[in-house]
Specification:
- 62% of the residues lie in helices and 3% in strands.
- It has helices at 2-21, 24-27, 38-54, 65-71, 83-105, 126-147; strands at residues 115-116, 122-123.
């Protein structure tokens, strides 16, 4: 499992510079042909990791219900993100991965609610959820790489 935690950290390292390099206006821009923003995609990966790993394990998440409602699967930006929200996601980007690793090593994940993903792959264990999350983050890193060309 060490490799999958490192992979997740690597994807977060790829996402983090977007929050530094782009202005708040650019982070909130939805280019023509896209349905979300750079910021939405980064917040979405943080929220999704929490839902897949913690919520499906019946454990408290490290993100607020408000963030979940704004950035979970099936949402789109309804209003511009604020600088405070950007700062919050910056603070959660790596801390959530570190906490997941610590909790996994400490055997905090004792239960898991099976979940059929929208890709057709069913998650049966927290290990599968952690691995699927890395795949999911990779998809959104690709979207970020596309979005950056248009903002």
């Amino acid at each position: 499992m060490n490799a999958i935690f490192e992979l997740t950290t690597t994807s977060r390292k790829m996402a983090a510079p977007y929050l530094e390099k782009y202005t708040l206006e650019q982070l909130n821009t939805i280019p023509e042909g896209f349905s979300n923003t750079i910021f939405w995609n980064i917040a979405h990966i943080v929220v999704t990791q929490q839902l897949l790993v913690y919520k499906l394990s019946g454990l408290p998440m490290q993100v607020s219900d408000d963030l979940v409602e704004k950035y979970r699967k099936g949402t789109k930006p309804e209003q511009d993100a604020t600088q405070e929200e950007v700062d919050l996601i910056k603070s959660l980007l790596f801390s959530t991965v570190e906490q997941m690793r610590t909790d996994y090593e400490n055997k905090v994940f004792q239960n898991f609610n099976e979940y059929p993903t929208s890709t057709g792959f069913t998650l049966h264990t927290v290990e599968e959820a952690i691995q699927f999350n890395a795949f999911h983050e990779g998809l959104h890193i690709g979207i970020l790489m596309s979005l950056r060309k248009f903002v």
